[in-house]
């Protein structure tokens, strides 16, 4: 009797920086690429929207204050977080994906307790640190052929709502979803070392060195910290992989998934020999 051949789709989480989504043409191109990848693999998308948030607040005369790269989230800022992250940015991306025939579903971490958070620092107001993630909603949607699109807003069982760093949100969702690949599409070409050169491959030890030495700063510091958290929680038999690269490059997802050497690939210690 001939054995039936079974194909296992790769679980991928794509995190999109808000800058990439601010321009309609860029948003449409990324939606087209994500939709194509979604037809082959099992995808979840997480997005930010910091640029849009800062503009929205400035138009209303509300100052954006940051502490260690985190936006101080007062009640009026939290209201804007819901309007921008969970509202206009999320809906525009879902609409762009639907235009490319992907059955996208807009979500936040509040939905069904997808991502719960706790206060990060009282001085930051309603800024949260993800502490728990429940994969059931993502699995139900993905198994049914839908494409979850998650805004970086979390909650807790008492009904609180938190503004969460989008990179941390991506890791929380990636670990819940058990994604084998975590792709950060951003506005930089990759991770630069002490000489300013883009590193094509980094293992976890080298990434920590860039963080501790201060070479990685700002948004890249947040991405490397998040990536290290992903490796610490990764529990597959197959080692996980993180890619940090420019989302403005045409066909970037196809290049990454076909194995092209674009951006920086981060791997766990024991995965370097297997992947290189």
Could you characterize what this model shows?
β6 (115-119) and β7 (127-133) form a beta hairpin. The protein has an eight-stranded mixed β-sheet, with helices on both faces. With 276 residues, the chain is of the alpha/beta class. 47% of the residues are buried. Mean pLDDT is 87; it is low at 1-8 and 270-276. The protein has helices spanning 18-22, 24-38, 50-59, 75-99, 136-143, 166-177, 204-212, 218-233, 252-257, 272-275; strands spanning 11-16, 42-47, 66-67, 70-71, 104-108, 115-119, 127-133, 147-151, 153-155, 161-164, 181-186, 201-203, 241-246, 264-267. It has a domain at 18-27 and 45-166: Acetylglutamate kinase-like (Carbamate kinase), CATH 3.40.1160.10.
What radius of gyration results from the CA coordinates?
18 Å
Give the count of helical stretches. Answer: 10
Could you tell me how far the N terminus lies from the C terminus, measured between alpha carbons in angstroms?
39 Å
Shape descriptor: globular
CATH homologous superfamily assignment of one domain: Acetylglutamate kinase-like
Mean pLDDT comes to: 87
The proportion of residues in beta strands is 15-25%
List SSEs in N-to-C order.
Answer: EHHEHEEHEEEHEEEHEEHHEHEH
Please name the CATH architecture of one domain: 3-Layer(aba) Sandwich
Helical residues, percent: 25-40%
Residue ranges: pLDDT <50 for 5 or more in a row? 1-8, 270-276
Main sheet makeup: 8 strands, mixed
Strand order of the largest sheet: 5-8-2-1-11-13-14-12
- Name the CATH class of one domain: Alpha Beta
Helix and strand content put the structural class at alpha/beta
What is the name of the CATH topology of one domain? Carbamate kinase
Task: Report the count of strand segments.
Answer: 14
């Amino acid at each position: 009797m001939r054995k039936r051949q079974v194909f296992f789709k790769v679980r991928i989480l794509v995190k999109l920086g808000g800058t990439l989504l601010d321009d309609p043409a860029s948003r449409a191109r990324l939606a087209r690429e994500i939709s194509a990848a979604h037809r082959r693999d099992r995808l979840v998308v997480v997005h930010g929207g910091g640029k849009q948030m800062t503009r929205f607040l400035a138009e209303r005369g509300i100052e954006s204050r940051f502490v260690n790269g985190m936006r101080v989230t007062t009640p009026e800022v939290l209201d804007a977080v819901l309007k921008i992250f969970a509202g206009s940015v999320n809906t525009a991306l879902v609409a762009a994906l639907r235009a490319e025939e992907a059955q996208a579903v807009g979500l936040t971490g509040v939905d069904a307790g997808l991502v719960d958070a706790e206060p990060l620092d009282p001085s930051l107001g309603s800024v949260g640190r993800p502490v728990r993630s429940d994969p059931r909603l993502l699995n139900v949607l993905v198994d049914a052929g839908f494409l979850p699109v998650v805004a970086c807003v979390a909650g807790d069982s008492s009904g609180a709502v938190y503004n969460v760093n989008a990179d941390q949100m991506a890791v929380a969702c990636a670990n819940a979803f058990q994604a084998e690949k975590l792709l950060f599409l951003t506005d930089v070409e990759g991770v630069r070392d002490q000489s300013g050169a883009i590193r094509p491959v980094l293992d976890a030890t080298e990434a920590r060195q860039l963080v501790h030495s201060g070479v990685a700063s700002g948004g890249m510091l947040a991405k490397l910290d998040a990536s290290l958290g992903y490796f610490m929680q990764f529990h597959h038999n197959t080692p996980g992989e993180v890619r940090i690269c420019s989302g403005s490059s045409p066909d970037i997802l196809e290049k990454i998934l076909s194995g092209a050497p674009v951006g920086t690939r981060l791997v766990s210690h024991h995965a370097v020999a297997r992947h290189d």
